[in-house]
Amino acid sequence: MNLEQLLHKYQASGVETCFHDRHINPQIYAGLNGQNWSLQDYKARGGYQALRTVLGLNGAPALTQDEVIAIVKESGLRGRGGAGFPTGLKWSFMPRQFFGQKYLVCNSDEGEPGTCKDRDILEFNPHIVIEGMAIAAYAMGISVGYNYIHGEIFKTYQRFEAALAQARAAGYLGDQILGSNFSFELHATHGFGAYICGEETALLESLEGKKGQPRFKPPFPASFGVYGKPTTINNTETFAAVPWIIRHGGAAYLACGKPNNGGTKIFSVSGDVERPGNYEVPLGTPFAKLLELAGGIRGGRALKAVIPGGSSAPVLPATIMMDITMDYDAIAKAGSMLGSGAVIVLDDTRCMVKSLQRLSAFYMHESCGQCTPCREGTGWLSRMVDRIETGQGRPSDMDLLDNVAENIMGRTICALGDAAAMPVRGMLKHFRPEFEHHITHKTCLVSSYV
Amino acid sequence: MNPAHSPTMEAVEFSEATLQRFARELAKYPAEQKQSAVIACLSILQEENGQVLPAHEQALARHLDMPVMAVHEVFTFYNMFNVKPVGRYKINVCTNLPCQLRAGQQTLQYVCKKLGVNVGGTTTDGLFTVQPGECMGACADAPVLLVNDRHMCSFMSTDKIDQMIEELRANKGPA
Q: Of B155, B94, B24, B150, nearest to A151 (Cα)?
């Protein structure tokens, strides 16, 4: 028996994370069951109708590039990978008249701790990403695209490759798509275990077959991207939102969420909840509702804190979280960020020092080593949190932690430095007494940490 | 080891089947950008041989028209490449925070204890290597572990781990 056959039964089925009835008005995960990922099933759900509309194959004239971009702008769609940059605006930065090759890249290097939404999209609804990318390519006059997929999810990569083969065979990719004058070829490619490659310019380096070390910006990818050519990069979920927007209109998408926060968002809820999983809900849904969908806190315990947008986002205490809505603006106003939509839930048995210890070790491990403040600073932070956790902390460590974090922020080529510093500052801001207790009493405030 | 100065290195010829897999990757990129396929090709070599030897790196560098050191840079930068020899089955257990909150750390310790190795160690029979892993993008499935880079196993209770290790031990098929 080969390893694939032998280990198949341990593979996630998606039932727990994706095929449940606890989404609210889902667009991307709607109607999925794990079996219906292929082209025929996708078409039966209305798939590729948006692309047909764009190409003028549904009775009306083809949309112009400007019209497509205007619809996406109107929708209020913002980047789902972390930064929340308006997608339509990003598309309008592409020099469409550039004579020569331009590239479209999908960032599926989903490695932000807490995030597992793109995996379920690519595995269970891969054609929605292909269609979204084809529409984006049309709008920006691009003929070649790459989808860079996280190295650890190899099955998902294989699934996406299978979907690509179906789309090519049916004429949705390749030369003169569906008989139109629009040609677009799309390829899948994969990483091999480097968190930093989720950073867009590190991803470009990796795509070129190099170490994934971020590039200094400017120039931005729109003028100097893959192989030095104009390139637009969006997250998987961002592309997956596009077909719905074209089918139903920008205004309808915006109306699903709240002003400046259009549409649905997939939240990956992990940690101390009864039902960890992905939940697609409209932006602006109260956190309390999301927690309820995830079955509430595990074992009926009390909520202590939430990291609302992936491990790089500053932690927020329960009192703030229970009053907050899940959208870019509300979470930013509370002092954190929506990020990738990874909601890491911690209950009242959790020690915040130990939690930060794990995160700081991660950033030290993943720093690419290019910039001194990040390379040295992440190690310094990690060692300090380590000694506080193990009862070796010094009273001066509190200020020093803050100082080191401050000296990393904004002083590095990419955002990994900030990502390492922000959790530290968030923890100190909201849970300072726990750190002080560790230093003074050499023990933990909470009794157990399962 | 510096691949350029290995005294025992013998030249490697890739098999026809391997070259076909390389060609599939190379076809994705412009003809003058062969280097783009280096990660995929190295991962294919690791899958086929269990590890990538300096001679493989040298042959691959020739195949992709790039310096050997550029191949080696990539090989040592990405965490999933085995820079040290590993057992027939490499088991990476995720211990990042979301997994840690759902027994990721205990799972790592359980696998180590079960196999009688320290974290990062290989069993004396050469069958298993156990390593901690960073986020694999399967946080809602915790505890998760990855076997030989390509097989993600989710919701791994101690019972399932017992069963899986027994099955892997008994397996005579290809790794």
A: B150
Give the single-character DSSP code of A360.
H
- The nearest CA of chain B is from the CA of A59 a distance in Å of 34
Contact B102 A366 (CB under 8 A): no
Is the pLDDT score of B2 beyond 90?
no
From B37, B74, B140, residue closest to A278, measured CB to CB: B140
pLDDT, tens only, A220-271: 999 999 999 999 999 999 999 999 999 999 999 999 999 999 999 999 999 9
Backbone angles phi, psi at A178, to 5 degrees: 50, 35
Length of chain A measured in residues: 450
Going by C-alpha positions, the residue among B156, B142, B47 that lies closest to residue B110 is B156
Give the whole-angstrom CA distance, residue A130 versus residue A121: 11
Q: Where are the beta strands (DSSP E) in B101-161?
A: 128-133, 145-147, 151-153
For residue A368, the chain B residue with the least C-alpha distance is: B77
Beta carbons of B174 and A2 less than 8 Å apart: yes
Q: Is the pLDDT of residue B10 over 90?
A: no
**What number is the average pLDDT over the span A288-302?**
96
pLDDT digits (tens, 9 = 90+) for A173-198: 999 999 999 999 999 999 999 999 99
- Give CA–CA dist A365/A113, Å, rounded: 13
Mutate to test the interface with B, among A116, A160, A345, A364 (most CBs of B within 10 A): A116
Among chain B residues, the shortest Cα distance to A191 is held by: B39
Q: Centre a 10 Å sphere on the Cβ of residue A2 and count the other Cβ atoms it contains.
A: 10
Burial class for A290, CB neighbours closer than 10 Å (0-12, 13-18, 19+) = buried
Q: Concatenate the DSSP letters of all residues of A7-48 into one string.
A: HGGGS--STTTTSSS--SS-SSSTT--SSTTSHHHHHHTTTT
Q: Testing the interface with A: which of B74, B135, B144 to mutate, by most A Cβ within 10 A?
A: B135
* Contact at CB, A270 and B140, closer than 8 angstroms: yes
> How many other C-beta atoms are found inside a 10 Å radius of the C-beta of residue A429?
14
Q: How far apart are CA B45 and CA A90, in angstroms?
A: 38
User: Are B60 and B41 contacting, i.e. CB atoms less than 8 angstroms apart?
Assistant: yes
B40 chain-A contacts, CB cut-off 8 A: 189-190
pLDDT at B1 over 50: no
Q: Alpha-carbon distance A444 to A352, whole Å?
A: 9
Report the distance separating Cα A18 and Cα A10, nearest Å. Answer: 17
Tokens found for residue A344: 């890491």
Give the chain B residue whose CA is nearest to the CA of A363. Answer: B134
Side chain identity, residue A190? H
pTM for this entry: 0.96
Interchain proximity B95–A358, CB inside 8 Å = yes
Question: Tens of pLDDT along B134-155?
Answer: 999 999 999 999 999 999 999 9
Spatial separation of the C-alpha atoms in residues B73 and A304, rounded to whole Å: 43
Token pair recorded at residue A394: 């010094």
**Residue from the list B74, B97, B138 with its beta carbon closest to the beta carbon of A344:** B97
Task: Provide the number of CB pairs (under 8 Å) joining chain A to chain B.
Answer: 204
HSE (side-chain half, CA atoms, 13 Å) at A58: 12
Neighbours of A325 (CB within 10 A): 20
Element (H, E) at B149: none
Q: Do A114 and B141 touch (CB under 8 A)?
A: no
Is B113 in CB contact (< 8 Å) with chain A? no
